[in-house]
Amino acid sequence: MKIAHLADLHLGFRAYHRVTPRGVNVRQADVSDAFRRAVARTIELRPDLVLVAGDVFHTVRPSNTSIADAFRQLSVLTEGLPDVPVVMIAGNHDSPRSSDTGNILALFREIPGVTVVADESRRVHLPEIETAVLCLPHNSLAVEGEAPTAMEPDPAVRHNLLMLHGTVGGSVAEQKMRYVTEYGGAIVDDTDIGPERWDYVALGHYHIATDLAPNMWYAGGIERTSTNIWMETEGPKGFVEYDTELRRARFHPVETRTVVDLDRLSARGLSAAETDERIRAAVEGIPGGVAGKIVRLVVTDIPRPLVRELNHRRIRDWKAEALHFHLDVRPPEIRRIVASGAPVRRQTLQEQVASYLDKHWQLTSDTLKRERLVELGTEYIQRTEEG
Fold this sequence. Notes:
alpha/beta, Purple Acid Phosphatase, chain A, domain 2, 20 strands
């Protein structure tokens, strides 16, 4: 059986206040175009099953344009694959906190062939392909005070699949998921999942395509929609195809807008003219130029007076040409003099947080790992600084 596994569509995502000729936010249009390409490629693959692992929308209350676009493309998908079931779960972005709000994903139940599991965990049986999909949407994992859902396969069916939207914990995940692209996901330990018991485990929430086992994948997002997109610039976006007979996964890239995070520059010891020249060389070294791209250049150790002497006319031209150009200038680290007269570097905020968590934070549970706590704390600070 062939499975097409999509996740983290984030339809309705907006950024940068640029609009298309039709008045639609450019980044919203980018995400919509990526979904259209993903749907077209999925139809070409002719899978036996399509799984959508959460965060179909970027917000709980998406715009009418985003809702109509999603409905249209899902209809195209089911019409192009008339005998192929589509199973969808809700993620943290499209799950309202109040149950009486209702979930927008319920609308897609009106499309023949689409099954939506939005709140409680549920096993979806698909007898036509001898398959059962245990669906764990965000809300089923995030309810406090309730016993976790038992993740057990159904012995009465040929193919057992698990689909969940959350953050997988465990040693493998800690090694492969280098940083957090999205916060707010419920944590599920990999030992609770037990991928060896399933034919395939489809994960959503982490925006970078990652295999945590040969048959357990985060499909990643179809576009760069994280709060800090610079954390996911490496590698293409797209979705995963998995063959349960061959036990083989294949990643299918989807064309997206170019995002460039240039190598950092240090202005330490440089004049304004020298700094300006290095900035110019870095930006003009981008293949194809900055036109229509999303670009960031971090310049460290640059005093404010020197920033004022940069060629701001040229910087404004880059900003006008690119979809988004961010020259991220950062001042030198402050040094202080102790009583002995020896210069001592002041600890950065990251170092202060790491030191506090390592030496002073009282762990409240034996399941918490101090090393991982320090790692997450420094990641959060870095993300704040880079955002």
